[in-house]
Automatic annotation (TrEMBL):
Region of interest: Disordered: 1-15
Glycosyltransferase N-terminal domain boundaries: 17-251
Species for this entry: Leersia perrieri
Protein family: Belongs to the UDP-glycosyltransferase family.
Name this protein carries in UniProt: Glycosyltransferase N-terminal domain-containing protein
Residues of the full protein shown: 6 to 492 of 987
Amino acid sequence: EEPVSATPPPPSPPHFVIVPLPAQGHTIPMVDLAFLLAERGARATLVVTPANASRLRAAAGLAARANLPLEIVELPFPPPAETGLPAGVENVDQVTDYAHFLPFFTALRSLASPLESYLRSLPSPPSCLISDWCQSWTSDVATRGGIPRLFFHGPSCFYSLCDLNAAAHGLQPQHGERFIVPGMPVRVEVTKETRPGFFKEPGWEAIHEASMEAMRTADGAVVNTFVGLESQFVSCYETALGKPVWALGPFSLYNRDADMMASRGNDNTSDVDAQTWLDEIDEDDSVIYVNFGSLARKPPKYLFEVGHGLEDSGKPFLWVVKESEVISPEVEQWMSAFVLRTATRGLVVRGWAPQLAILSHRAVGGFVTHCGWNSMLEAIAHGVPVVTWPHFADQFLNERLAVDVLGVGVPIGVTMPVMLFGDEAVPVTRGDVARAVSALMDGGEEGEERRRKAKEYGEKARRAMEKGGSSYESLTQLIDSFTLQAM
Ligand code: UDP
């Protein structure tokens, strides 16, 4: 008699525990990543603090309705007596005093013990921890639990490669000096002010060193980018890092429902209906959209320059102004007068705007951006060319990528970073704003070429995320590699 061969049980899906940095520009892509993993059958757990969990209500609701294996786990944030921070500050965008940044990053380290307790409470250890590279304390937790760890690096591979190469050569240019980033497949010129590297200020050495060490000890990197956008930088970064780099984006391009698309983890959603306003615009690609991300706050004099510049450009515009930028009755008055004056041609959205819905609208043809990587990639993924106005961190290098390498950007011409709440003189005038907007929106042959390239990258982005596309297939491989380990 033939022996009956038992069918092996199907492999259980791998479990990814995801630890974002509590800052919108870091959390949003990791929430998207959690959805991508869960939609492809893996189990995804997002670990956040209570105030951040409450911002993810729309995301949690969507996951539940769609029956996705995605859960949100809350870890307690230490109380003000321990951190020296005001009560309720649990996210970088809630920090209103520059002196609170270092205590905030230090406070995050005390999430290690509750994370460890949560991991120990699971019937079996997760397959992998994916943590923001700024959450370096997760590396000890993973090591102690014997759990593989990937780090999520928010910016492009172009930026990360510049950062690695500049650090490897120990280059410290002096003020005013220009230097070429070594080891790059293209020429990249930076200055002391715009060179790559986070946490550069004195006092941040320990945080910086811990983050670098956590990158060195990780099993690989997950990046929100796609091979068709920066193929040579993805492979050079992988070689330089000496470990796998998973290019899985653009994360923002997967199916989502309207509620989640509108809130994207922010409770300060504007009630202005941008969608209806855009629907009424006849001409495609005619509106310039202006938004400087979740953190940058413009002091009044620059807010006014932006407004006047948009007015002078003569183009229809959709401008997002944060409530925290309208800091006095004078600014409020100026805004009211501006809104009245420009009502036939422009829309001012106060608060948090549905950026993805706006960028994907046929009427939007350009974006004045601070070059945060999420905003930049969202523009590219929707085929929208950009005016680049970098403020800090990786944004100056993202500008180089958009303008010099991809050919989809017009620089506004800033060369110095601004602090988040500073009033430093950054010499951008209404003339600069009007000139850059006009160049982007009707820049003749050059303008046409930029738009053509942006649309081409948008098309490539869409294909990368479809079955058979590079990002889709990389995600399959990532999930498979942990499925095999789980067996
Ligand atoms: N965002 C949004 N509405 C807003 C402002 C920002 O949806 O009014 C989203 C934007 O789509 C992006 C993220 O917030 O996903 C901002 O990240 P980015 O890296 O561009 O900049 P950061 O906020 O980190 O400076």
